[in-house]
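Recap from last week: sequence in, structure out.
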Amino acid sequence: MYYNRKISDSFSKLLENGGELRWLFDFVKNHQELDFLIGKNNSKEWISIYRGLTRILSILPMDNPQIVLINADVKYKNMLGNLYGDKSINYNFQEDIENLIAQIENNSQIDRYFKNKKEGYYQNELSRKYGIWGSANDDFVVIDKEAVIGYANQKEKDTILGNIQQKYKQIQKDISILNPERYGKDLGKKTVGNELDFLALDKEGNILLIEYKHGTNTSGIYLSPLQIGMYYDLFTNFPKKDLECAVFEMLTQKQKIGLINPNWAKPKYINEIIPVLIISEINYKSSAKIKFDEILQFTRDQHGAGFLSNLQTYNYTLKTGLSKW
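Predicted structure tokens:
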């Protein structure tokens, strides 16, 4: 198992003050609909630009340090082909990005997951609020999004992740058998993902494993204890010292770039790992909260009263910020 999404120093310097891509940092910061995701795995590293949940381009380093590869899904390449491919690090593609965004905004099919102001829209807002536009006084900062633990090989992945996923698929099956009309049929066939929405760090040194849902996603909300439980199992089984090292390295790098406020005080050590659910635009007439409590209690009855005993739940709005759910 491994988890450290810190990119190489030479690649990071492109975005830092004085770097060839510093203009891109300023461009994204001043465009409310955009955000960064920087990271790496055991085969590559990247600087990606997101619009909501949609990655509109990724920048990857090449063997030649003066060249980068700009890549994206084929649908964006079809919109503006000249933006993508091997480019000099001195190539300023701001006008190309603006043209791409204009085309996306005029394509209702491609832009539907941002323009509908649901999960993509609010995740983008939350990420920017506790990231690139964060303050030194924020209670927490976003260290990583779409966070994934990596594995040395497929065998290790099947052994660790596979066994945990199977556990939660069985719980889903049990819930479906309990009351298929109320909770849904064939839940045991439902895929249990392994991509955490946000990994954050608070001032007390707690790692926050944040899952985000929009208020209209009723089944997503009431089944979220299982999704959150899986992430909690994965990260609490990860060696704590390695996790602490990774989180602090990622924090330092993001502060150096400006993706996290440089004056936000780094905790001295990692304390707890806390599971968190954040919901936007909660519909208080929905059955989501009642079913959420039922699912949580059922899982505790079957698998121990300590299941997600430190779970925190919040409502998030643009006007009021975070409040207890």
